[in-house]
Amino acid sequence: MPKISFVYFDVGGVMIQDFSDSPKWDQMMVDMGLDKFDRIKIDAIYDRLEDGVAIGKRHIDTLISIYEKEFGVVFEPNFSMQKYFVDHFDKNVDLWPIVADIHKTLKVGLLTDMYPGLLDAITVAGLLPPVIWDQIIDSTKVGIRKPTPEIYKIAAKQAGVPEAEILFIDNREKNLVPAHARGWQTFFYDSHDYAQSSRDLVVYLQPRGL
Questions:
Q1: 0.90 exceeded by the pTM?
Q2: What is the pLDDT of residue 209?
Q3: What Cα–Cα distance (Å) separates residue 170 from each residue in 15, 56, 61, 88, 187?
């Protein structure tokens, strides 16, 4: 079996149960009063602006005024999309003991697309396991997001081990492709079923002595 010296985890859809592959986004539309409007248009606005958010050029809450102007809705003065996200994220507790076991012998890190300030908010909310991460590659800090090849180059340099000894765990196949192309080991973590994916990860790691 190939040696593993460093394990990178994605955050949303892996380390935490965010809105990935769940009805949480639909519920957010209801709670924001946007469910009565054209969903295609709502999502198009979000998708068009989200790249800028993920690389730290704008805050996710700047979308609030855009939605207000576009659809004529009025949100509460203190409403925050970012706070809504964090309040509706959940711990992925099945993964916590796995991360702890891995970290006994290997270095671990996060390689994640984030929004400005979101990772800090997730950490403060106690949604991540109590781990001192050896490296954190946050898209808003490096100004690049997955699956842009440059972010994997940065992550490899920060890991400080041969690239063939890096394992990357992500819930999106498109984010694993550039890692695999660099010679990393990869594991697809299916966020449709967190518990089963955690069990599958244990099975994957066992022959590798982890």
A1: yes
A2: 76
A3: 9, 21, 26, 20, 7
